Amino acid sequence: MHEISIMESTLELASTQARNAGAARVCVITLRIGTLSGVVPEALKFAFQALAPGTLAETGELRIESVPARFWCAACQAEFQSENLLAACPKCQTASRELRGGRELELASLEVE
Ligand SMILES: [Zn+2]
């Protein structure tokens, strides 16, 4: 399962950063996940529950920020949002192939203490 390995490296990164900061535990891990990243937030939460025990994030919380997909319309010179990979501009109906966001998969922030 893809989400398990994502969570493994996230927890590793969080623990390293907490140790470097001299913290005893990780309170909140916030991940930014694009709606087109292919990652299932529920599966990530499940992976967190399965993997967090025994790490510095054992008593911590996982938060997931969902990032909508953004496309660029060259005709309107504007961005628009869509959940569909084959998106058309809502103003002029031109199909856009230029994805500007929505594939994010990153650690947005970390709270340690
Ligand atoms: Zn347009």
Keywords:
three-stranded mixed β-sheet; elongated; 113 residues; 2 helices; three-stranded antiparallel β-sheet; binds zinc ion; 35% strand; alpha+beta; hypothetical protein PF0899 fold
In percent terms, what proportion of residues is strand? 25-35%
Overall spatial form: elongated
SS-based structural class? Answer: alpha+beta
Strand order of the largest sheet: 2-1-8
The chain-level mean pLDDT equals 94
Bound molecules: zinc ion
CATH architecture of the domain at 2-68 and 101-112: 2-Layer Sandwich
The number of strands is 8
Return the string of H and E elements: HEHEEEEEEE
Radius of gyration: 17 Å
Q: Could you list the spans in which at least 5 consecutive residues all have pLDDT below 50?
A: none
Count up the helices: 2
CATH hierarchy class name of the domain at 2-68 and 101-112: Alpha Beta
Structure overview:
The chain is of the alpha+beta class. It has a domain of about 80 residues: hypothetical protein PF0899 fold, CATH 3.30.2320.50. About 25% of the residues lie in helices and about 35% in strands. It is built from 2 helices and 8 strands; from the N terminus they run H-E-H-E-E-E-E-E-E-E. The strands form 3 sheets. The protein has a 3-stranded mixed β-sheet. A 3-stranded antiparallel β-sheet has the order 4-3-7, with no helix packed on it. It is elongated and about 55 Å long. The mean pLDDT is about 95. The structure holds zinc ion (ZN). The site of zinc ion has 7 residues, from loops.
